[in-house]
């Protein structure tokens, strides 16, 4: 019977040792499981942070490219406007020069008219008929020249506005 008790005691101790070993293994398993879960969570956080960093980098790069494109657009607009401003200044200078030439060309015949008409009006009695005829012929010639100049200016103006139709022809220069 003692042998049975001893066997039971031995089985009981063995069973307790096995139970303790199983409990330790279960505890170790639970600990390892929780540690693995923490590692997985940490890895997920790191991956999420890495993904966010990549998104931020891409957004920063994209923003930089957009800023660069806007800056280039503004620069080219500025250059284009500068070119237009320069062309406008050149055009305005040409226009002013042209008006100056036109005014000079119109002033000469009008001055001649004024001078001749004043001389004729003030001294009509002092002139002979032939002299008056000569003055009138000069008036006629000056008025024709002035009329031709004004017609040329009108034709030029129409050509500049596109209101004048052009019909080019081939000419034989030798003839």
How are the elements arranged and paired?
Blueprint: H1 2-122, H2 129-161
Helix pairs in contact: 1-2
Features of the shown structure:
175 residues; mainly alpha; 2 helices; 88% helix
What would a concise description of this structure say?
With 175 residues, the protein is mostly helical. The chain has helices at 2-122, 129-161.
Structure description:
By secondary structure, the chain is mainly α. 88% of the residues lie in helices and 0% in strands. The chain has two helices and no strands. The chain has helices at residues 2-122, 129-161. Helix 1 (2-122) packs antiparallel against helix 2. The N and C termini lie far apart (156 Å). The model has no long low-confidence stretch (mean pLDDT 86).
Number of strands: 0
| Percent of residues in β-strands | under 5%
Determine the oligomeric state from the structure: single chain
Number of helices: 2
> What are the secondary-structure elements, in order, as H or E?
HH
| Global mean pLDDT | 86
SS-derived structural category: mainly alpha
What spatial form do the alpha-carbon principal axes imply? rod-shaped
> What share of the residues lie within helices?
over 70%
Question: C-alpha Rg, in Å?
Answer: 55 Å
Task: Report how far apart the termini are.
Answer: 156 Å
Largest sheet: none
Q: Residue ranges: pLDDT <50 for 5 or more in a row?
A: none
């Amino acid at each position: 019977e003692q042998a049975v008790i001893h066997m039971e005691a031995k089985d009981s101790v063995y069973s307790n040792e096995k139970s303790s070993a199983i409990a330790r293994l279960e505890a170790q398993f639970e600990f390892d499981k929780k540690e693995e879960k923490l590692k997985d969570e940490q890895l997920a956080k790191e991956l999420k942070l890495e993904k966010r960093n990549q998104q931020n980098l891409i957004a920063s790069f994209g923003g930089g490219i957009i800023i660069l494109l806007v800056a280039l657009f503004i620069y080219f607009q500025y250059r284009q406007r500068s070119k237009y401003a320069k062309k406008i200044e050149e055009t305005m200078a040409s226009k002013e020069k042209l008006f100056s030439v036109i005014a000079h060309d119109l002033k000469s015949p009008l001055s001649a008219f004024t001078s001749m008409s004043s001389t004729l009006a003030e001294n009509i009695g002092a002139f002979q008929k032939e002299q008056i005829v000569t003055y009138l012929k000069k008036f006629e010639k000056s008025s024709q020249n002035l009329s031709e100049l004004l017609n040329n200016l009108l034709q030029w103006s129409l050509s500049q506005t596109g209101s004048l139709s052009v019909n080019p022809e081939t000419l034989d220069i030798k003839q």
